[in-house]
Automatic annotation (TrEMBL):
Species: Chryseobacterium caseinilyticum
Pathway: Pyrimidine metabolism; UMP biosynthesis via de novo pathway; UMP from orotate: step 1/2; Pyrimidine metabolism; UMP biosynthesis via de novo pathway; UMP from orotate: step 2/2
Quaternary structure annotation from Swiss-Prot or TrEMBL: Homodimer.
Residues of the full protein shown: 203 to 452 of 452
Signal peptide coordinates: none
Superkingdom of origin: Bacteria
All residue ranges annotated as the Orotidine 5'-phosphate decarboxylase domain in the record: 33-238
The protein's name: Orotate phosphoribosyltransferase
Broad enzyme group: transferase
Keyword annotations of the record: Decarboxylase, Glycosyltransferase, Lyase, Magnesium, Multifunctional enzyme, Pyrimidine biosynthesis, Transferase
Enzyme Commission number(s): 2.4.2.10
Entry cofactors: Mg(2+)
Ranges in a coiled coil: none
Function: Catalyzes the decarboxylation of orotidine 5'-monophosphate (OMP) to uridine 5'-monophosphate (UMP). Catalyzes the transfer of a ribosyl phosphate group from 5-phosphoribose 1-diphosphate to orotate, leading to the formation of orotidine monophosphate (OMP).
Reaction(s) catalysed by this chain's protein: orotidine 5'-phosphate + diphosphate = orotate + 5-phospho-alpha-D-ribose 1-diphosphate
């Protein structure tokens, strides 16, 4: 028998971190568990995508360092306005992977100043417990397991990574292709309705599969949405598929 998953409402009531609360509250209000990955390379594309998919998502995931014309005023200021308008959070998928002092500098300095705008960030936990201390004002999603073929996040690695992640107060959840403890939010990338891979190591599952077998909380969809001919409609489809799959998994 499969163990029952917790509902968003139950997770909301148990949540300790303000960002977890906000994510779960948004999911319940919008009836969405969809995070769109905005892997586009210009400010114009990023803002256009955010405007189109905004109504259907709970968060927009960025790789802000791939934006070739990045400018804080022209990129971040309007992006924050769209996040407010459509009620979604900003998730910077930076995957920090260094010592605490360097991560702190990467988080607060440079041109991106991630600390000023991201609601939550991804981080490897390879630097150990204290490397996560600098992410005080945001939620951290720990990279526990990766979706790509041949990843080194074996079960032994995941077990150790989970110990660090689960014990750190800044951590709200993890990225993984395996189940996580109930107290952590599970974010699952590698979701696509049409493809099983991208020829570059990415491996895809359907929303139905990840909710049923992993009890995921939030699906992350990149090319399934932004490469689609109609990203707005694609986001709507993934939102509905994700919500239905969540309800079936209860
Ligand atoms: F941690 C991970 C992971 O294990 N797999 C991922 O695919 C992160 N990702 C990110 O999700 C990746 O960097 C992309 O930004 C996104 C998946 O995009 P896709 O176009 O849906 O494959």
């Amino acid at each position: 028998d499969e163990k029952k998953r917790l509902s968003y409402q139950e997770k909301f009531e148990n949540a300790q971190h303000s960002v977890s609360k906000k994510l779960l509250e948004t999911a319940l209000a919008k009836e969405s568990n969809l995070i769109a990955s905005a892997d586009v390379t210009t400010t114009a594309e990023l803002l256009a995508l955010a405007e189109k998919v905004g109504p259907h998502i709970i968060a927009l995931k960025t790789h802000i360092d791939i934006i070739s014309d990045f400018d804080y005023e022209k990129t971040i200021v309007p992006l924050k306005a769209l996040a407010q308008k459509h009620r979604f959070l900003l998730m910077e998928d930076r995957k920090f992977a260094d010592i605490g002092n360097t991560q702190e500098l990467q988080f607060t300095s440079g041109v991106f100043k991630i600390t000023d705008w991201a609601d939550f960030v991804t981080s490897q936990v390879i630097g150990g417990y204290e490397s996560l201390d600098c992410f005080k004002n945001v939620g951290v999603v720990a990279i526990v397991g990766m979706s790509s073929k041949g990843t080194l996040t074996t079960s032994a690695y995941r077990e150790e990574a989970l110990k660090v992640a689960a014990s750190h107060p800044n951590v709200i959840g993890g990225v993984s292709q395996n189940q996580l403890p109930d107290e952590m939010l599970l974010f699952t990338p590698g979701v696509n309705l049409a493809d099983s891979g991208d020829g570059k190591g990415q491996q895809y599952n359907t929303p139905e599969h990840v909710f049923k077998t992993l009890h995921t909380d939030f699906i992350i969809v990149g090319r399934g949405i932004y490469k689609s001919e109609n990203p707005e409609e694609a986001a709507f489809i993934y939102k509905n598929e994700g919500w239905e799959a969540y309800q079936k998994s209860l």
